[in-house]
């Protein structure tokens, strides 16, 4: 499926930039998710470097070293795939990322009315960008600025490039906070999240002990085992300290054969679903799957790919809620 291939390329390429996978493997505020805001852990590497302010404009240096003049208070920000952190900061972009019919479903109650910029051709088309009349463009990943695209976008509006805005959501949130004068909100979001995680970690430690938790994603005729290096794996194993399968440690989006499933299926399994139910059905119908202790003991939790394969602050909050609902007694 074309859309799946592009989404998976975005995910795997992001991790490749972080040195986790081979680059040739190429895809208004609400409820409790909106309440996550956090702790002053400002990183100098996360902060744009302002140099001067005049005539309603200021000069900043982006993560690729471009020195650009941006509005002090931009009003029409185009930042595809950064809708999660932007809306967390109370900023509504002018358009939302889409990949054909695929959108970030978990954000639609916030951004559902926004027009879409379609990445199904492999990137942001400059003509689509121009149609949104932005006064600031923020590119989520450095690769989106390659092959003359940065120059094309810069003709439309000042363009700020993040090296990799998906891998480290806290750094990205702080960078956007510095850039858009929302540092206080960014730091409070992180502080609130860390407080919730610390409380959850203590509760889970008494409940889970050393029980192993595996995180699996069947997609594209592959079965991926996620680790602490990967998106929601960062929450399970890094933030919450849950017991990571030995097979997953130090790997990223490991393509797992069915024969290896018994090595990760003795405890609990979080199964990322909702992207292609056919692949889930094929997995669940296999004799190996049916033989796993986690399956026999009803310790499988299905979670939505839509926020479990995203790494924004709102997605993290939803993932935390899913985890607590699954692992803590009612």
Would you mind describing this structure in some detail?
It is a single chain. The protein is of the alpha/beta class and 330 residues long. The chain has two domains: 28-186, 3-Layer(aba) Sandwich (Rossmann fold); 209-327, 3-Layer(aba) Sandwich (Rossmann fold). It is 36% helix and 16% strand. It contains 13 helices and 13 strands. The protein has helices at residues 2-17, 83-88, 108-111, 126-131, 149-154, 169-179, 183-208, 231-239, 277-284, 287-290, 293-296, 305-308, 313-327, and strands spanning 52-54, 57-61, 67-71, 77-78, 96-98, 116-118, 136-139, 159-161, 213-219, 222-225, 254-255, 268-273, 300-304. The strands form four sheets. It has a five-stranded mixed sheet. Strand 9 (213-219) and strand 10 (222-225) form a beta hairpin. Helix 6 (169-179) runs antiparallel to helix 7 (183-208) and helix 7 (183-208) packs parallel to helix 13. The chain is globular and about 65 Å long.
